[in-house]
Amino acid sequence: MRKISAILGTMLLTFFLANSAIAQSNLNAYFAIDTDLATSGFQTSPQAVTGIGPTAQIGFALYSQAWDSAKGFTVHFEWDGALATFRTSSSPDMTDNDITINGAAITPPVETNIIGASRISAGEINSTGKYEISQAQQGGTASTTAVGLIYFLVLRTVSTFNTSTPLTVAASVTVADANAATRFLGTRYFYVNQEIDVKTSSWGEVKKQFKDF
Question: Are 98 and 189 in contact (CB under 8 A)?
Fold first, then answer.
């Protein structure tokens, strides 16, 4: 992940003139997982789904929280590649194409990525049990939107998967600000066919748990 983040930073420096005195940004930034894919915008929802069987699509959306400057980002996902495969319907944007995911047939709302529709890619890794991509704005000013869509991930379970098969997907995010300074925002988890202890946490508790810098 550090290699891709470095590429992202280099690319941003190439396309955007950095200030000589760089002010810190995104000090309170973090991100969250949303499994309510039929509702527009970020929704507080369980980070787990159950009753998932073979060749079924599963997934979630990542949303920014408390971002104040975003010119680019890197998303990194890891899971057991023997249990599920990456689907190309995954995207930094969401479209209204009908899809059956997490056990429900839905029509996702149309949502544009937090940094806008005009983007350039800084590289992609797509291997067994791992997917990573970096993107940056192509022109324009950095986004100051606090809460917005980062990425929509879709996986498909293998034919031998069943409703008692547990699967965990790890999601990590790095944000790059207007001056190409990157900030790693930690890792969160999505659980399939697992019972998890869901509790209401304060913003401070969430920030402390999932930020790592």
Answer: no
Query: Sign (positive/negative) of CA torsion 43, 47, 52, 58?
Result: positive
**Are 138 and 14 spatial neighbours (Cβ–Cβ below 8 Å)?**
no
149-188 pLDDT, tens digit per residue, is 999 999 999 999 999 999 999 999 999 999 999 999 999 9
> Rounded to an integer, what distance in angstroms lies between the CA atom of residue 24 and that of residue 51?
44
Quickly name the fold that domain 2-20+29-210 has.
Immunoglobulin-like (2.60.40)
Integer-rounded Cα radius of gyration of the chain = 17
User: pLDDT tens-digit profile of 131-154?
Assistant: 999 999 998 899 999 999 999 999
Helical residues (DSSP H) of the chain, grouped into ranges: 2-15, 203-210
DSSP-based three-state secondary structure for 74 = strand
Tracing tokens 């993107």 back to the chain, one arrives at 135
CA distance 154 to 92: 11
Measured CA to CA in angstroms, residue 173 lies from 37, 76, 90, 129 at distances of: 19, 6, 16, 17
Nearest Cα neighbor of 191 from 110, 122, 102, 67 is 102
pTM of the complete model: 0.83
Helix %, strand %, coil % for the chain, to 5?
A: 10, 40, 50
